[in-house]
Amino acid sequence: MTLVGQYALQVAFESGHATGLYTFVLLRALCDCAECQARRPTK
Question: Could you tell me the CA-to-CA distances from 2 to 5, 14, 17, 22, 35 in Å, in that order?
């Protein structure tokens, strides 16, 4: 896993695939823990 700037992670899988960035905004939106739910922007 590699930090990309201050906004995302890039995952390198054992199979050699390493495409795509996972932004912290996306990861927080997908997470169900209480801390991430509290930090989500209100709509």
Answer: 9, 14, 13, 10, 23
Alpha-carbon distances, residue 31 vs 17, 36, 39 (angstroms) = 23, 6, 11
The residue type found at 31 is C
- Give which of 23, 29, 30, 31 is closest to 42, Cα–Cα: 29
Spell out the per-residue pLDDT of the chain, length 43, in tens.
999 999 999 999 889 888 889 999 999 999 999 998 888 777 6
Q: Please list the residues that pair with 8 across neighbouring strands.
A: 4, 23
Residue 12 contacts residue 2 (beta carbons within 8 Å): yes
Which two three-digit tokens encode residue 15? 């199979």
